[in-house]
Design goal:
mainly alpha; single chain
């Protein structure tokens, strides 16, 4: 059962963060339940769950989770306002996770075990790695919608999406360093980034931009450290 839960979580991450373009999200927010992309999004989730679980004896569980996903997404679209989008984004994700756990336990309570197999540990590792890429970038972007710093960065020349890729790489490196037991390398990585960022911080007199960069760096490293610690402490149980 634990392996099924991990596969369902992976399907959710892929469906919500990798296979849902921003234009779908905007269309859903505008048209709400009339948006065709809402139902295509749910269909993709169901297809991913079938593909990853690869056991049609779980068809009813998968359809239940798909139905719960539709209900949760629909409620979010109907209830959220511009000022509450960030709040409902996190509520939405928590409810999806709860639905996966509760429905799987209810449907397969006789199969609950306290130990998992090696392949589930590998899947747990994959989930952690995947989460630290696009999903974490979206979570951070959602958090930073509170501030608009475009006027402080409009004259800065940089590669397209460079910041996002730098963030992904640094989180993955932090994760790898921690799970192999080299915390000192994390300190070196933070120092190295601080040195490279020093030029950006000293070349601008804008305090808001400085604070924005600092918050982004600490948040990115913080999430990576938390995920790493969760993996180290839970891998023997999953």
């Amino acid at each position: 059962m634990n392996l099924i839960i991990l596969k369902l979580i992976l399907a959710h991450i892929l469906g919500d963060f990798f296979l849902q373009p921003q234009k779908w999200v905007k269309d859903k927010e505008k048209k709400k339940l009339k948006s065709k992309w809402l139902y295509i999004h749910i269909a993709i989730h169901i297809a991913l769950m079938f593909l990853l679980v690869w056991d049609f004896s779980h068809w009813f569980l998968i359809l239940l989770i798909g139905a719960s996903h539709l209900i949760i997404d629909a409620l979010k679209l109907l209830l959220q306002k511009k000022k509450t989008k960030k709040f409902y984004f996190f509520v939405d994700q928590v409810l999806h996770m709860v639905a996966i756990f509760v429905l799987t336990i209810v449907m397969h309570h006789k199969d609950i075990t306290l130990s998992l197999y090696i392949d589930t540990s590998a899947l747990f590792l994959l989930i952690c790695i995947v989460f630290l890429t696009q999903p974490t970038s979206i979570i951070m972007k959602t958090i930073f919608t509170k501030w608009d710093i475009s006027k402080y960065t409009e004259d800065n020349e940089s590669l397209k999406d460079a910041g996002k890729y730098i963030g992904v790489l640094e989180r993955l490196l932090v994760f790898i360093f921690i799970i192999v037991g080299h915390w000192e390398a994390v300190g070196f990585l933070i120092t190295a980034k601080s040195v490279f960022r020093f030029g950006d911080l000293t070349s601008t007199k804008e305090r808001k931009l400085t604070e924005y960069i600092l918050i982004g760096t600490l948040l990115s490293f913080g999430i990576a450290i938390i995920v790493s610690l969760l993996f180290l402490n839970l891998k023997s149980y999953v």
